Input
Amino acid sequence: MNFHVLTLFPQMILDGLNTSITGRAIDKGILSVEAVDIRDFSTNKHMKVDDYPYGGGAGMVMQAEPVQAAYEHVAERLSKKPRVIYMTPQGHTFNQQMAHDFAKEEDLVILCGHYEGIDERVLENIVTDYVSIGDYVLTGGELAAMVVIDSVSRLVPGVLNNTESAETESFENGLLEYPQYTRPVEFMGKRVPDVLLSGNHAKVDAWRFEKSLERTKKYRPDLYEEYMQSHSEMHQ
Ligand code: ADE
Output
């Protein structure tokens, strides 16, 4: 899968993704991450990419032309019109289901804004998906883009190895994940729950499911309600 990030801070994207699991997948050729510097497409002699907002107000707005040109630089090399995700607090809140949906694409273009946003006209031209990573405001879209790329990448076949398998994670079944333990059996007076040492897989599974429910009810009552609702409907 190929990510093409349109950004004013390409190094931030490359530094963030060339390590750990995404870095390993890039080295193996399963993923590629191209960071396209929007400033390279400025037509201004000072390489400016922003200007004052029409109508007045605080801050600067990224101009349409360099963003459009950066997009075309990517799109003209692809065999079909790509999906273009604009990272913005005004978008749909990102979730695991969206990660699965994006992971089906061969190429994904991700547009990162800065300042007070981007001229609406180029957004209308190129953006297919408006995505937020939560109800808070970042200084730019780069960290948000890395969050999306990281979570989509781990769903691409071959990115995770068997021991890193993505299937039993939080959200995959609509619940938060159960607590995990490893050696030693006792740490600062706290013992690993006996059931996990029992070797009885059915009992382990039942315990984990119960803990998942407990945690989800406590920390994410919204998800818990949704889960209980959908499962009671299934049994009607
Ligand atoms: N850019 C600034 N804040 C953001 C957010 N919460 N999500 C996505 N992109 C953003």
Notes: The chain has two domains: 2-153, 170-234. The first helix runs from residue 10 to 17.
